[in-house]
Design brief:
With 258 residues, the protein is mainly α. It contains 12 helices and 3 strands. It has 2 domains: 118 residues, Orthogonal Bundle (Arc Repressor Mutant, subunit A); 97 residues, no CATH class. The protein has a 3-stranded antiparallel β-sheet with strand order 1-3-2. Helix 6 packs across helix 7 and helix 6 packs parallel to helix 8. It starts with 14 loop residues before the first helix and ends with a helix.
């Protein structure tokens, strides 16, 4: 019998998951719905079948499924006619112990995201091959250390994610631009970015481009940061002006009486 509800843990409401998932949330919920409760796994998965059921382009769904894998929410195992999907940190809704299944250790490596299009191959290495492999390994390790040193801080990551959300720019395709602009902001300002530059925010009320329903660019967010104000409607005096007018009227009455 088909389920009529889906179990989602409250932890998914944390900002880190909102920034990490973004538009991937719908595919992730779809996967949660299909996963069996005992193992937190989908035994037979095909991207084509899921794309048809979700009415999504196959390339889009496959890209989103790989992103969920890259960001640690799921992992996949190649099977004869498709994939087996495992949901990480799964909790069986029928159990009340809070026990987590499929916990992904930090030392685990990401599974091959091309496993659905390429088969594994084996080759016999010669001594020269081993020498080249050793050299390539050292170069790779050096590059890895350099990239680790230059890895953006968690704060810059959150700000870059917020800029991606409000501007509509694809996060993966615009990382250099988003991280470059994120340096202009202070820790914790990602919440104000979301508040002021999302639909209904002050950008859409105070800036002429927003009033035309245009989303801001990252550079425009920097340009207008803390400089947007909602103008007072013409013809309607402010509270201060009204108080001054009332005070003048009272003074005139006193002068007439004296």
């Amino acid at each position: 019998m088909k389920r009529t509800w889906i179990t989602v843990k409250r932890g998914i409401l944390e900002p880190k998951h909102r920034f990490a998932l973004g538009e991937l949330i719908w595919l992730f919920i779809y996967i949660l719905d299909l996963a069996n409760w005992e193992e937190g796994a989908i035994m037979e998965w095909t991207d084509k079948g899921a794309a048809e059921e979700m009415d999504m382009p196959l390339a889009t769904l496959r890209d989103q499924r790989r992103k969920l894998e890259e960001r640690g929410y799921i992992s996949t195992e190649r099977k004869r006619y498709g994939l087996r999907i495992i949901v990480h940190n799964w909790t069986n809704p029928k159990e009340y112990t809070g026990k987590k299944y499929n916990v992904k250790a930090q030392s685990d490596t990401q599974s091959d995201t091309q496993s659905d299009t390429q088969s594994d191959t084996q080759s016999v290495k010669t001594p020269d091959d081993n020498l080249h492999s050793s050299i390539e390994s050292k170069v790779t390790n050096q590059k890895s250390n350099i990239s680790t040193d230059k890895k953006p801080s968690e704060n810059k990551y959150q700000i870059a994610r917020a800029l991606s959300d409000v501007t509509g720019l694809d996060f993966e395709k615009n990382k250099p631009r988003l991280f470059s602009v994120s340096k202009k902001f202070k820790t914790g300002e990602e919440q104000q970015i979301i508040r002021d530059y999302s639909i209904g925010g002050i950008w859409y009320k105070a800036d002429w481009r927003g009033q035309k329903r245009q989303k801001p660019t990252p550079e425009q967010v920097v340009e207008t940061w803390n400089n947007l104000t909602i103008p007072v409607p013409s013809g309607k005096p402010s509270n201060i002006e009204a108080n001054f007018a009332l005070a003048n009227d009272l003074l005139r009455e006193q002068n007439v009486n004296t």
